[in-house]
Amino acid sequence: MSSNSGPADRRALIAFAWLWVGVPLAYGLYELVRKATQLFTG
Description:
The chain is mainly alpha-helical. About 85% of the residues lie in helices and about 0% in strands. It has one helix at about 5-40. The relative contact order is 0.08.
């Protein structure tokens, strides 16, 4: 009883999941680098 969804649907879901995690992660790393630079350079 598995649904037979096409690979395009699966790819869209995977892309959305990567964006859901990747965008906040990238923003957090950006803020980390920015604040660490301020900390060490004054």
